[in-house]
Design a protein that fits this description.
There is one protein chain. The chain is globular. It is built from eight helices and 21 strands. α1 packs across α3 and α2 crosses α3. The strands form four sheets. Strands 3, 4, 5, 6, 7, 8, 9, 10, 11, 12, 13, 14, 15 and 16 form a 14-stranded mixed sheet that branches. It has a three-stranded mixed sheet with strand order 18-21-20. A two-stranded antiparallel sheet has the order 1-2. By secondary structure, it is α+β, with helices and mostly antiparallel strands. It has three domains: 127 residues, no CATH class; 130 residues, Jelly Rolls, CATH 2.60.120; 74 residues, Phage tail protein beta-alpha-beta fold, CATH 3.55.50.
């Protein structure tokens, strides 16, 4: 009965450890939940062992030689903790003389060091140094360690690092919307090759249209925009070239900064949901929106087609084929597939 009870406990601990592992890797633990996790971890050495088993199974901590643990059937009169394979019965042996260093103390030290290294690596990966990348036609959403929410569009590359002084995110390609959790002591700074954006508690989007052009749109709150690679200076409020509030947008292109303009931020950032509402823009503008987000490219074989005004309609940004079919239904536009990755629009 005792062996069966131990097996049930091991199974329960494995389930709990697996649940914590999934939450840690997903990086969606709140501050309260992180405290609960630490309390669970400290409650018993068996919790630690169960979690390490999960890490080893998924490729973490392979160098942590912790495949053995204390057997629950060890001699109760012995003061020496015997290490044996999980589930195996221990063979009692005589206590070593006090003058010798017990092997279990050495094993415990090695285990402690290995565990610290594994947990330290996972904590750094989960909370301090992460990256996210999306493919064409792929949208993603994640919650950061501080509670901020990150929504990214296709063809995006972004990484972030949080310290005690600053929350830094590096957008090297693509677009993202940032719903920033308030933390006045740690400014939230998005850096790009074109310019940097600083916020404390707000919602804004940054789109790298190309290598030299960035669009900053504010939905709520206030942000400060500076020249590139000066995010650190923004902590002190210097080097700002513009301050934006809700429903304002700024376009930076190379060394040129366009005047701040009033916009409908909900519509401008609608791409983060995978949809976009066209309100009479030219076809060439719509084609540009589709082409920078999808693998299937729409080719304007005739410039006159690009000058046609789009109807007032909402489309899915990951579906350029339906967009092309809609245009092909017009009497003055002809649509043809060049290949699996290219759709050609021509004047009829």
């Amino acid at each position: 009965m005792k062996q069966g009870s131990d097996n049930q406990i091991d199974a329960l601990l494995s389930e709990q450890a697996a649940a914590w592992f999934v939450r840690l890797i997903a990086n969606d633990l709140s501050l309260r939940e992180r405290r609960e996790y630490l309390a669970w971890l400290k409650a018993s050495g068996r919790h630690v062992e169960a979690l390490l088993d999960i890490y080893r199974y998924h490729g973490y901590g392979r160098k942590a030689k912790l495949n053995n643990r204390a057997s629950p059937d060890s001699d109760p009169e012995s003061k020496v903790i015997q290490f044996a394979p999980r589930g195996a019965a221990a063979t009692p042996y005589r206590q070593e003389p006090p003058r010798r260093s017990p092997l279990w103390r050495i094993a415990a030290v090695v285990a402690g060091i290995a565990f610290s290294l594994v947990i330290g690596y996972v904590a750094k990966t989960a909370y301090f140094d992460q990256r996210l990348a999306t493919d064409p036609s792929e949208w993603d959403r994640t919650m950061l360690a501080d509670g901020s929410v990150l929504r990214v569009g296709p063809n995006t590359r972004i990484r972030w690092y949080f310290s005690d002084q600053q929350r830094t995110l590096m957008l090297t390609r693509g677009e993202a919307v940032f719903e920033v959790a308030k933390d006045p002591l740690r400014p939230f700074i998005v850096t790009t090759s074109v310019g940097d954006v600083r916020a404390v508690g707000t919602e804004f989007g940054v789109s790298l249209v190309n290598a030299t052009t960035a669009v900053v749109t504010v939905a709520h709150g206030k942000v400060a925009v500076s020249k590139p690679n000066q995010g650190r200076l923004l902590i002190h409020g210097s080097a700002a070239i513009a301050a934006l509030v809700a429903n304002q947008q700024l376009i930076l292109s190379g060394d040129t900064v366009q005047p701040v303009k009033e916009v409908d931020a909900d519509r401008e950032l609608q791409w983060a949901s995978g949809y976009y509402e066209f309100r009479g823009e030219k076809v060439k503008q719509a084609v540009a929106e589709f082409n920078r987000r999808n693998r299937v490219q729409v080719v304007l074989a005739d410039p006159s087609v690009g000058e046609i005004a789009m109807p007032f309609t909402t489309v899915r940004l990951d579906d350029p084929e339906t967009f092309a079919l809609m245009l092909g239904a017009r009497p003055d536009v002809q649509m043809a597939y060049e290949n699996a990755q290219s759709i050609r629009l021509m004047a009829e």
